[in-house]
Amino acid sequence: MEQSQQQQQLRSVLVTGGAGFIGTHTVLQLLKEGFLVTIIDNLDNSVPEAVDRVRLLAGPKLSLNLRFFIGDLRNNEDLEKVFSDTKYDAVIHFAGLKAVGESVAKPSLYYNNNLIGTINLYEHMAKYGCKKVVFSSSATVYGQPEKIPCVEDFEPRAMNPYGRTKLYLEEIARDIQKADPEWRIILLRYFNPVGAHESGQIGEDPIGIPNNLMPYIQQVAVGRLPELNVYGYDYPTKDGSAIRDYIHVMDLADGHIAALQKLFTTEDIGCVAYNLGTGYGTSVLEMVAAFEKASGKKIPVKLCPRRSGDATAVFASTERAKKELGWSAKYGVEEMCRDQWKWASTNPYGYRPQS
Ligand code: NAD
Ligand code: UFG
Question: What residue stretches are annotated with the NAD(P)-binding domain (predicted)?
Fold first, then answer.
């Protein structure tokens, strides 16, 4: 036990996109688990303050184990700088653009950033002999599922350019691993990440009007937006609104630690996908009610037509992650809303002071 803890303390992990929403929460957990962590992030969708807060939460001792490079995965010089002075045991690859609507308007930006950034990263990993990676995939690869729960073996599909980047990057990972079996790759398909660290010090801080449900609800609750548009009230569900599998971001963070342990201990893992979800579906109107309860705030809603491309109901099969990673989600919707409200109420304008 003591020896394995010591070995783990020496392990070094590169986290791309580590200044972002899921990245910050995962970096904090990695530090707490005794990893040495290096972040590379170009701050396209994040701010240095987020990393400063992670340092504060980790405390003076553990924060010495965190390094932060501002850099872009598409820039070889930035990657050379990050790889040339440290030997990493593994990479967690979060960096990418993720807004579905923007990807439809600017497909080449998405293909350029997500595909070229990732290929560049893998080339540098191979060059420097680091062949273990946990990749951020998404439930988006299930498209509008014909059956639920979504099982990892379903044929992947994509509904938009963002989804296609995830689909192609999963395929690229499989090809790379097939060509060189030394690679060990885990593709984590996140369902709907929400919530925040229980301290309320770090959380999701989207730029502009939020696209996703929970950040939108949060901004209505703090008075930044007047009401929530509920997209679709005639779905064949219990209350007519669409159903998703919301997962607490701290559960996701722990899922990454479980995936890393799996990579370190399983020589023949190959390239394998795992769902990270709770296995439970919650409707939009149920999420609104849960957030109202957690915050004590009324969320005015306007019932609107369905959003194009949205599925009726999506939730995860959690069996494979439970069986093979020994991981399952601990938190429910109540804790997700409680912690998101703590973040929202203490930081109504996120990391940026109100301008
Ligand atoms: P985020 O935008 O908060 O974090 C991504 C980070 O990557 C940002 O800090 C951004 O500045 C950085 N980045 C982007 N392109 C980069 C580049 N070329 N070089 C260096 N840094 C770059 O997003 P998130 O919610 O934390 O998501 C992390 C990953 O998980 C993404 O790949 C996303 O597609 C995936 N994912 C997210 C969700 C979700 O709903 N949040 C769901 C499924 C999958
Ligand atoms: N919704 C509203 N009003 C809003 C925002 C969302 O009613 O203002 C509804 C949507 O119509 C949907 C549900 O809330 O029914 C959830 O929507 P989100 O945009 O929060 O999440 P999605 O499930 O549509 O998609 C998100 C990402 C995808 C990713 C997926 C799973 O945008 O890229 O989660 O990870 F694939």
Answer: 14-339
Residue from 88, 122, 162, 331 carrying the catalytic annotation = 162
Residue 7, pLDDT score: 47
Q: Show contacts of 179-184: CB within 8 Å, 24+ apart.
A: 180/126, 180/131, 181/270, 182/131, 183/131, 183/132, 183/133, 183/271, 184/131, 184/132, 184/133, 184/263, 184/266, 184/267, 184/269, 184/270
Measured over the CA atoms of residue 159, residue 240, residue 277 and residue 16, the dihedral's sign is positive
Q: What's the token pair of residue 41?
A: 């992030």
**72: helix, strand or coil:** coil
Residue 41 Cα: closest atom of ligand 1 = 21
The DSSP string of 190-209 is: E-EEE---TTSSS----SSS
For residue 41, report the distance from its CA to the centre of ligand 1, in Å: 9
Closest-CA residue, ligand 2 atom 34, reads 192
Is residue 353 very low, low, confident or very high in pLDDT (cuts 50, 70, 90)?
confident
Q: Which ligand 2 atom minimizes the distance to the CA of 284?
A: 14
233 catalytic residue (yes or no): no
pLDDT tens figures, 16-48: 999 999 999 999 999 999 999 999 999 999 999
Q: Which ligand is nearest to the CA of 19?
A: 1
What is the rounded CA–CA span in Å between residue 73 and residue 83?
Answer: 12
Q: Which of 5, 12, 32, 27 lies closest to 90, judged by CA?
A: 12
Q: How far is the C-alpha of 60 from the C-alpha of 65, rounded, in Å? A: 10
DSSP letters along 238-285, please? SSSS-EE-EEEHHHHHHHHHHHHHHHHH-TT--EEEEEES-S--EEHH
Alpha-carbon distance of 292 to 8, in angstroms, equals 42
> How far is the centre of ligand 2, averaged over its atoms, from the C-alpha of 72 (Å)?
27
